[in-house]
Structures are given as C-alpha cells and as structure tokens.
C-alpha cells in the first residue's frame, strides 16, 4: 500500500519553553477581560471597548514528546496555531493537490472538531467526531472555498482521564494517487564567527529524522576567523548528520558570497534539486524545513519557498510574514502588520493572517530555491550583503518564477528592532545595492522617486550629524557610477576601506560610559513639541538648518562634551538644533557622540546633490549597462573566478524517481 504524502505533521516544542508554546498549542483560555474607556474628543460621551487577552496556562504537562498531547479531563485544546493549523489557501494556489486529509490518532474518549476560516477570518465548524476507543480518525477536506485565503485546524476535547492525542497529520488526498518525488535538498549555511549558534543549528537539523531524510548535504561556508570545527560540540553535530556535512573555508565575501558558494557546490554535486539558504544564527523548527521541501516538490512549477521570521528574543513575535518591493521608491518592506504577537492575539483572532499574501521575495534567513532556477537566472548579485535576497526573487520573477512565503515554515532570528544598520558601516551596502537593484529592475523613468528618496535620506543624516553615514552613501553612489565590472572586485576589498574611514568620524565610535564627559547633564532632554515637521514648515526648517549647519560656527566647547543626551526614541528633527549631542544606539549599549562640523556639512551636501543628479541624469545609460552585464556578473564562471572555485562537471543529473 502506498504511504500517504505527509504535508504537515502536528508537532509540539522540543522543550517546555513557555515562550514558544502559543505558536504550537492554544489552551483555548481566551476571555473578554480587558476594558478601556476612550474619549473621542468631540463631545461629552466616552466609548467603552473590550478586547481579548490570553489567560496563560502551563501546557507543558500536556505535552508528550514532539507528537503527543494529553489534556486533562474535560479540557479543550485548540491546534489552531501558527505551526499546526493548515494554510489551505497556499496549497490550493501553488501546488497540485486539491484537498487535504486530516488524520488524528487518539486514545481514550474525546471529541475532535474541525474548523476552517475564509480570507476575512470568518470561522466555521466543518466536521466533528466523537471517539470512544483507541484509533485513527480521518477527515477528507476540500479546497473549494480557499481562493483568497483561509486555514483549516482542529480542536480536541477530553471526555476521559486517559484521553490523549498520540499523533496527527495533514496528508495529501489519497484519491490523487500521488507518489512523493525523491527530489533532494542541500542546506547551505554561511557563517562568520558565530560558531556556537551554527553548531546548535546543525544539531537541530540532525535531531529530526523525517527532516533529515530529505536532505542530501549540509554545507557550511565558514568565512570567519573563529572556525566552526574548533567549537566543542562540532564533532557531535557532525556525527549526528550522518556524513552529510561539508565545511568549506572561504575568504569573507559576505552573505552573497557565502550563499553563492553554497549554490555553486550544489550545482557541482548534481545530487540535489533544491538548495535551502539558512542564516547561521537562527533557531530552526526542523518540521518547517521538511514542510518547505514537501511544498516545493508539489508545486505546479519551480517555485522559491521561503520561511517566516520570528524574533529570537521575543519568540511569539512574528517579525516578517509577507514582504514586497515598492518599485517607485525601490524600497523593500512588509505588506502585512509587523511584529504580530501570537501571545497576545492567537491565529483565530488575527483576521488579517487568514488572507493569502503573495510576496515579491523572502529573506535568506530561510529560503529554498530550485536548482533549475539558479541555472537559468544565475547566482546572487556580488554585493556582499543587503538586497541580494530581494533582487534574486525579483530577477526570478522576471523569468516567470514565483516566491512563496509559506506559513508553518519559519525560524527564529535576531530582529531589526535592536539594530540600526543603515547608519553604521552597512550604510554603504544599503545605498549601493538598492541603487544597483533599481537600475536592474525598475520600470520607472529615471528610477521613479529613488533619487529624491536618496537625497532626502542624505539630508536627514547630515542634519543629525551622521557624517560617516553620508560619506559611505556618497561612496556607494561612486561605486554604482563606476559600473558593474567592479562589483566582484569589491567583495573582499570594500569592507576594510569602509572600516578604515570610521576613525575620521567621531560619531562612528560608541561611548559606553557617559561619566567620561566632564559636567555632562545627568538627565536626558525631553522635547516639549514632538510633532513632526510637515507641510510648509519643512521649507522653513530646511532653510534655517542649512544656514545654521553650513555657515554658523559651533559654540565653544561643543567638541569637549555633548550638550544633551537623547534617547533612541527622540524624534530626529530635534537633533539639528544642537551643536553636540549624544544619542543612545538602537540596542541601548552606548551612545554615539555627534558634533556639528560646517566643512563636512557643506562638502557632503554638495556631493550628495551632484551625485544624485548625475546618476538620475545618466539613468538610461547606467540601467542599460547593468542589465547588459547581469548575466555575466551572476554567472557560475564569474563567481568561480572570484571565489577560486574550479569548474567541475556534475557527475549525474538529479533524479525524479519516486521514493521507495
């Protein structure tokens, strides 16, 4: 008898971490307990509103390993959660299946109740069963009502002391007589001095036999000075992977260089049909890796399958769900609410998440790419970091290939809330790579609003005395104007140059101890008027501050100590009124000391004006040049030359033979 294709297994946390349990199991303890009175400001009446809050209950005693759950007598538990509900609309839209079978194995007496939602988050019960003996109950569920969105899930209710869920699965409908493809996966991880994180990730992958069964090779491209082989637990992780692990030492060529090496090695080996790119510092749900591979195997055409990102340190916060590219400004960003907290609002309450979202790209913290797409469209842009993932999916889309961010496939990663990498050395890569991607893919004359957006960013950083940031942005424009032939050469040479420049800019160094400033104010400045500068006020604000920053001399002593300390939350338009200011960094570990400098302001402002005008004026020529070179700079040959990888003929072609 043919084994059913398991689309999703019901799984529970491998540890009793209370921070992650709301993503796996919902004890159904929501109640209307939060009430607030809000004055409308237009009359004497107040409006009373109520909202729902989760009364947390310890579900750890209910869990029985990764597959089992034993509620207490008369307890109700819902599996309508991020990892265990079934996102039917995504499977309907992108795969060959037209329905799903829910298989639930239980012991004891209880009830199983199946629900579905639509794209508006409206919930309906679709089926139920009462069980009185040990066994497996199945429900055959169609995809008739899931064009725009909707999920399936089920709840269980205990009617006896011994009632328990032993395992459950969402399976492909047996009527389709599908045989699961034997297509294999290579996982490519790029690491730079995060050896402990990386070894833990390898151990997690090795811990799930079902996930491991579909993996052909795990490649770690080690670009750091602290080698992963020297990590104490490395040998144990290597052994657990059963001969699948390859560690490759390589010069630091950034994320794009490390992931391109993983792509190259996968193509050369010729034994995998997919490569999954994973960051080294993520915590993975291994079932999510298996799901992504299964989804890709069943897609109607080759498709990039990405996973979502949760916050590593606030684990129920969904940091990235669906992202797109605003082509007029050519800027990436979310198309869904960011940082949704499943600990405050479960899947059943969160109406927006029931809509299916189609994306422009998925971050390379977790992204599965079919090898045939790489062979056709090329490897990553040689841009070190930033925009490599977004540009690759945009390029693939131009060749007719889609990207799907698949619910239920996810990793935990350090979020951006404690980072401000647009102001440090990474500012160069943000600015250059955004501009390169726009030259390659923008359909708007002169790049749409991009030049104005860049100029506005430069001006803002100048007025906040971020001279180092603006200098790096000017270098980015120069790099773009120099043409695409320099991109490969800059992979290993640009970063040392950027870091060497930092010593010329006071604000690039972090001050951890404020007591070093003699007579520094003991309290932070609090703004009386924090309203943003808008409308006609913008022109007056700019004129006043251009004259002040470019012509007036800073007061005596501005270079001796800051005038004031501003928190990170302070509005940026407060900063220009000071000559010397300490601003807390994003993670709160220190302050950056900004001191006004007339000469730097004038020089960098002129540079910004002339360079932004120049690339806008030359847009057509530059765009034609970059597009004409795209195939060459992303080719296997160019990357092999840059990384020093010899050309290897694949031994065999990947097999489509079914799994026995």
Task: Describe this protein's structure.
With 660 residues, this protein is α+β, with helices and mostly antiparallel strands. The protein is built from 17 helices and 28 strands. The strands form seven sheets. Strands 13, 14, 15, 16, 17, 18, 19, 22, 23 and 24 form a ten-stranded mixed beta sheet that branches. The relative contact order is 0.10.
Query: Per CATH, which architecture of the largest domain?
Result: Alpha-Beta Complex
Helices, by number, come to: 17
Oligomer: single chain
Helix content: 25-40%
Number of strands: 28
Low-pLDDT segments, ≥5 res: 31-52, 652-660
CATH fold field value of the largest domain: Spore Coat Polysaccharide Biosynthesis Protein SpsA, Chain A
Structural class: alpha+beta
Portion in beta strands: 15-25%
Give the distance, in angstroms, between the N- and C-terminal Cα atoms.
11 Å
Largest sheet: number of strands, sense, barrel closure: 10 strands, mixed
> For the record, what CATH class of the largest domain applies?
Alpha Beta
Q: Give the integer mean of the pLDDT values.
A: 91
Q: What is the gyration radius calculated from CA atoms?
A: 27 Å
Count of the separate structural domains: 3
Overall 3D form: globular
Protein name: Glycosyltransferase family 2 protein
Family: Belongs to the glycosyltransferase 2 family.
GO molecular function, one term: glycosyltransferase activity
Keywords: Glycosyltransferase, Transferase
């Amino acid at each position: 008898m043919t084994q059913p294709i398991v689309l999703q297994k019901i799984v529970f946390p491998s540890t009793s971490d209370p921070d992650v349990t709301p993503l796996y199991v919902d004890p159904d303890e929501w109640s209307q307990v939060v009430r607030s009175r809000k004055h409308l400001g237009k009359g004497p009446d107040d409006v009373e509103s109520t909202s729902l809050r989760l009364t947390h209950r310890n579900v750890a005693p209910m869990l029985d390993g990764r597959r089992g759950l034993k509620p207490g007598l008369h307890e109700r538990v819902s599996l309508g959660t991020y990892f265990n509900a079934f996102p039917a609309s995504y499977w309907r839209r992108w795969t060959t299946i037209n329905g799903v079978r829910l298989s639930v194995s239980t012991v004891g007496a209880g009830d199983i109740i199946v629900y579905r939602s639509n794209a508006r988050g409206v919930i309906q019960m679709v089926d139920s069963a009462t069980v009185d003996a040990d066994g497996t109950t199945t429900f055959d569920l169609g995809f008739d009502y899931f064009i725009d969105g909707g999920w399936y899930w089920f709840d269980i209710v205990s009617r006896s002391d011994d009632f328990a869920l032993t395992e459950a699965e969402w399976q492909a409908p047996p009527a389709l007589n599908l045989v699961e493809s034997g297509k294999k996966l290579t996982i490519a991880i790029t690491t730079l001095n995060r050896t402990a994180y990386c070894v833990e990730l390898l151990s997690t992958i090795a811990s799930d036999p079902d996930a491991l069964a579909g993996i052909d090779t795990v490649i770690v491209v080690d670009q750091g000075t602290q080698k992963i082989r020297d990590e104490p637990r490395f040998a144990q992780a290597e052994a657990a992977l059963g001969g699948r692990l390859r560690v490759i030492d390589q010069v630091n060529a950034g994320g794009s260089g490390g992931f391109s090496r993983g792509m190259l090695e996968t193509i050369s080996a010729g034994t995998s049909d997919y490569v999954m790119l994973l960051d080294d510092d993520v915590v993975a749900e291994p079932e999510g890796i298996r799901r992504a591979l299964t989804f890709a195997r069943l897609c109607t055409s080759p498709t990039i399958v990405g996973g979502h990102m949760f916050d590593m340190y606030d684990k129920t916060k969904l940091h990235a769900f669906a992202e797109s590219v605003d082509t007029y400004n050519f800027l990436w960003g979310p198309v869904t609410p960011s940082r949704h907290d499943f600990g405050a609002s479960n899947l059943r309450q969160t109406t927006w998440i029931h809509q299916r979202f189609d994306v422009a790209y998925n971050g390379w913290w977790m992204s599965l790419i079919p090898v045939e797409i790489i062979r056709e469209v090329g490897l990553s842009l040689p841009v070190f970091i930033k925009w490599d993932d977004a540009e690759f999916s945009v390029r693939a889309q131009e060749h007719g290939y889609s990207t799907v961010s698949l619910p239920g496939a996810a990793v935990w990663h350090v979020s951006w809330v404690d980072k401000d990498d647009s102001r440090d050395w990474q500012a160069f890569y943000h600015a250059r790579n955004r501009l390169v991607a726009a030259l390659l893919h923008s359909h708007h004359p002169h790049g749409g609003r991009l030049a104005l957006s860049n100029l506005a960013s430069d001006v803002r950083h100048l007025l906040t005395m971020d001279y180092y940031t603006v200098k790096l942005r000017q270098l980015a424009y120069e790099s773009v104007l120099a043409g695409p032939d320099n991109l490969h050469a800059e992979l290993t040479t640009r970063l040392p140059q950027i870091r060497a420049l930092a010593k010329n800019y006071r604000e690039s160094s972090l001050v951890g101890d404020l007591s070093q400033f003699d007579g520094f104010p003991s309290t932070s400045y609090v703004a009386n008027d924090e309203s943003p500068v808008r409308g006609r006020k913008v022109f007056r604000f700019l004129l006043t501050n251009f004259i002040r920053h470019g012509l007036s001399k800073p007061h005596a002593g501005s270079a001796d100590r800051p005038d004031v300390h501003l928190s990170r939350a302070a509005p940026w338009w407060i900063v220009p009124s000071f000559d010397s200011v300490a601003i807390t960094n994003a993670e709160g570990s220190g302050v950056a000391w900004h001191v006004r400098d007339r000469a730097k302001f004038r020089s960098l402002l002129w540079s910004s004006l002339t360079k932004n005008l120049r690339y806008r004026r030359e847009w057509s020529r530059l765009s034609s040049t970059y597009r004409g070179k795209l195939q060459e700079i992303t080719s296997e040959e160019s990357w092999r030359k840059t990384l020093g990888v010899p050309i290897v003929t694949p031994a065999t072609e990947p097999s489509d033979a079914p799994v026995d």
